[in-house]
Amino acid sequence: xxxxEKEQKKIMDTIEQKGVAFMPxxxxxxxxxxxxxxxxxxxNILFMRPPFKKINDKDTYLFTCSQFQMRLYxxxxxxxxEVISPERLKHEMTLFYEKAYRRYSGN
Length: 107
What we know:
Elements: H1 5-18, E1 28-34, H2 36-44, E2 52-55, E3 60-65, H3 67-74, E4 81-85, H4 87-105
Antiparallel strand pairs: 1-3, 1-4, 2-3
């Protein structure tokens, strides 16, 4: 069948909000604190960067996207980004960096 105008609008809104690569993922909100270097990186690394806005203080940002997109984006920041919430992403990032540490430290 043919896509209705309402369905087309919903698809376009989803693409605008999530991006084509992350359409299937559940959207959530993520609070992340950045170092000064991290803030520079945030404004320079555009590839796969989810929508965000600055909140409360000058170092904390709120992102709206899937957890998968947030993890992929933050993996590039190393110690220049800290997930504040939700706890499940914080835990996932901790495991990611622990594995990297073990690989590079020979442990």
